TrEMBL record, chain B:
Keywords, sorted A to Z: Cytoplasm, Lyase, Phosphoprotein
Record-given protein name: Citrate lyase acyl carrier protein
Source species taxonomy: Bacteria, Bacillati, Bacillota, Bacilli, Lactobacillales
Species the sequence originates in: Lactobacillus kimbladii
Subunit structure: Oligomer with a subunit composition of (alpha,beta,gamma)6.
Localisation per UniProt entry: Cytoplasm
In-chain residues carrying the UniProt-annotated modification O-(phosphoribosyl dephospho-coenzyme A)serine: S14
Protein family per UniProt: Belongs to the CitD family.
One GO cellular component, as annotated: cytoplasm
Length: 351, 98
């Protein structure tokens, strides 16, 4: 019987052994971005003391799972690894987990009650436990006779909410019966998730047919994207955006009767443009995709990136031309806190 | 019995079953994954439902991942998960298994 043990990757010898085993199983990406986020690693040791399986946890994501190719015991070892990882998650009171894996392994996870959320030719994205995507969707407020109404969606990070975001919401609001504004839930931006949510709510309060909802784990959630088995960044972005778009198309949009998605162009972000294109390719024609050109104020393009740069360079006056008063008041009140966050190393040039 | 948290018991290994119990509103809803669901799915669900009701739970969401567990194992894992979900593990209700 194989024994489950905890592997301490902080020990160089253990890490070397772990890495060697994974390489022998075809996993080659050990970039610090992927490895540094690992919280817990288990190993499977056979009767001869050989490492024959391993798996890791980063947050609520299962990563670096591999078992030796011995066909007679492969399934049992796989189950034992996943079981050990779940046991760890449960001990941390984490009852909802994700795995991002090669498409061919999707079935193995399905046998362990993981539910596939989306798959491309190469990759599959699955979740397990509770609350799942159906629970997430069931909690979203609806309007009467929603299935026969014009319903649209916008997804935004709103870091922070600008006049550009507001104009996009206004446009969608005027063209539809109901607009869902999903705010990215991942807390990795200069403005914290709670702050971004609040500013979106305040900045859209004049549009009664707009509902502001947290994107949860399912709309552009960074934490759910380990990419260790993909070769290049471009490939990673393409797969990530396709999975994200497929979850929206296959599960979220049908449940909420969303027929249209509004996107804003982003002149300075390659990722966003890539994302917009990928969304359009995947969603149309089932869902109408409207890419709206970036709004300008006196020939100045309005972007949240610019707002963050102005906070950094101490130019409060120019910010007032880019954001609604609700956002401006917040920035004005929390100016020092925001600047301190930048000083402490918060990246302001991403999304 | 009030479900206060998520309760899990069991493993994904052969001859075992993993049961996850969380709060629900519409009776006992069971999401079962099993290789033998076609032949024994109803029986597995019955054992889970009976055990929960005997324990005093009328509404719950249950995720069950079966790897060929016998009825006595299913009942024991269900009871353990239920006691963890209701935070009553300090008073084992073993009579439920009889």
């Amino acid at each position: 019987m194989d024994k489950t043990v905890e592997l301490f990757l902080t020990l160089p010898e253990t890490k070397k052994r772990w890495q060697k085993f994974l390489i022998s199983q075809g996993i080659n990406n050990f970039s610090s971005r992927e490895v540094a986020v690992i919280d817990h690693t288990v190993g499977l040791i056979d009767e001869d003391g050989q490492l024959v399986g391993t798996g890791s946890i980063a947050g609520n994501v299962l990563k670096y799972i591999a078992v030796s190719n011995d066909a007679s015991v492969q399934g049992a070892r796989f189950n034992q690894i996943v079981s050990a990882l779940e046991e760890y998650l449960f001990s941390q009171k984490i009852y909802h987990s994700f795995v991002f894996t090669k498409a061919k392994y999707s079935a193995s996870f399905s046998h362990l009650n993981f539910k596939e959320l989306a798959h491309t030719d190469e990759a599959a994205f699955l979740e397990s436990g509770t609350p799942n995507i159906q629970d997430f969707l069931a909690k979203i407020p609806r309007i009467e006779d929603q299935n026969h109404k014009k319903v649209a969606a916008i997804v935004m990070n709103a870091n922070p909410f600008t006049l550009g975001h507001q104009a996009l919401v206004k446009l969608a609001s005027s063209e539809n019966d109901l607009v869902y504004v999903f705010v990215v839930a991942t807390d990795a931006s200069l403005f914290k998730t709670s702050e971004r949510m609040e500013l979106v709510k305040k900045g859209t309060s004049e549009y009664p047919n707009v509902l502001v909802i947290s994107g949860g784990d399912y709309l552009v959630s960074q934490s759910t994207f380990p990419a260790y088995f993909l070769k290049s960044p471009d490939e990673l972005i393409a797969t990530q955006t396709e999975i994200d778009a497929l979850i929206f198309k296959n599960t979220i949009a049908p449940k909420l009767a969303i027929k249209k998605r509004y996107l804003g162009t982003e002149p300075f972000s390659r990722t966003t443009n890539f994302y917009n294109q990928s969304l359009k390719n995947t969603l149309s024609p089932k869902i109408d995709v409207e890419i709206v050109k970036r709004f300008c104020n006196n020939d100045q393009i309005i972007t949240a990136t610019r707002v963050r740069q102005l906070i950094k360079s101490n130019n409060l006056k120019d910010i007032s031309n880019l954001v609604p008063t609700t956002t401006f008041d917040f920035i004005n009140k929390n100016y020092q806190i925001l600047q301190e966050r930048i000083k402490k190393g918060m990246n302001i040039n991403g999304n | 019995m009030e479900i206060k948290t998520v309760g899990v018991a069991g493993t994904l290994e052969s001859s075992d079953i993993q049961i996850m119990v969380s709060a629900g509103q519409n009776g006992i809803e069971i999401d079962l994954e099993s290789e033998v669901a076609k032949s024994y799915g109803d029986q597995i669900k019955k054992v889970i439902t009976d055990t929960l009701k005997k324990f005093g739970i009328e509404n719950a969401k249950v995720k069950a991942t079966d790897k060929g567990a016998l009825d006595c194992v299913i009942a024991a894992r269900t009871l353990a998960a239920a006691q963890r979900a209701t935070e009553t593990t300090d008073k084992p209700r073993l009579e439920v298994l009889q």
